[in-house]
Design a protein that fits this description.
With 222 residues, the protein is α/β, with parallel strands linked by helices. Helices cover 34% and strands 18% of the residues. InterPro entries: Isochorismatase-like_dom (IPR000868), Isochorismatase-like_hydrls (IPR050272), Isochorismatase-like_sf (IPR036380). Keywords: Hydrolase.
């Protein structure tokens, strides 16, 4: 079996069962004036990974492998937004409130959209998720099963929250998970470092981590 150079050891890739999942590369998290910036975060940390995420997406497209995009968002009537979630963060600007790019993290609003540089193309799966993990209250699991996917490469934001949460959900469901290190980011560098360490600790207890170039080389030569 072929392997991708990774930590803590080579990732035993099965190219015909592999998919890329790009987590929450949305305007509200990456652009000035969005929800992320309203919480006092430096959104330039997010935008700087865009070229590597784009390279990864294009590599998977070129190889004919599935690309899945997620967006954290809620119904306009907020029926899928627990009060405990809404009440956190910036007291003056909460999920569902009117922001500079429309209602914050509401399905269909401009700020909820994926960054134009990383926009899905026809045929790619888009998962709208109300939680941090992409399996909660979505059809992701059923879609992966239908496509025969057993391995997931992860990119997106933020490393320690939605990316790590989804990896842990996937790990518990039996998927083998690989995080693309340069294609994920946090507003806090120490949080990204800690998440990476936790993911690959104790013999890949949650998953593996690898460099984008090594992942692209493997799928290009499959």
């Amino acid at each position: 079996m072929a392997g991708i150079k990774a930590e803590p050891f080579a990732f035993p890739v099965k190219h015909d069962e592999l998919a890329l999942i790009v987590i929450d590369m949305q305007r509200d998290f990456a652009e000035p004036g969005g929800f992320g910036a309203s919480l006092g975060n430096d959104v330039s940390r997010i935008t700087r990974i865009v070229p590597d995420v784009k390279r990864l997406i294009q590599g998977f497209r070129n190889a004919g492998l599935p690309v899945i995009h997620t967006m954290e968002c809620h119904r306009p009537d907020l029926s899928d937004l627990p009060p405990a979630k809404r009440d956190r963060g910036n007291p003056s600007l909460r999920i569902g409130d009117e922001g500079p790019m429309g209602r914050i993290l509401i399905s269909g609003e401009p700020g909820t959209a994926i960054l134009p540089e990383l926009a899905p193309v026809k045929g790619e799966i888009i998962i709208e998720k109300p939680g941090k993990g992409a399996f909660y209250a979505t059809e992701l699991g059923a879609m992966l099963k239908q496509k025969g996917i057993s391995q997931l490469v992860f990119a997106g934001v933020t490393t320690e929250v939605c990316v790590q949460t989804t990896m842990r959900e996937a790990n518990d469901r039996g998927y083998e998970c690989l995080l693309a290190e340069e294609a994920t980011e946090s507003y806090f560098p120490e949080f990204k470092a800690a998440a990476i360490a936790m993911i690959r600790a104790q013999g890949a207890i949650v998953g593996w981590t690898a460099h984008v170039d090594d992942i692209l080389e493997s799928i290009a030569n499959a």
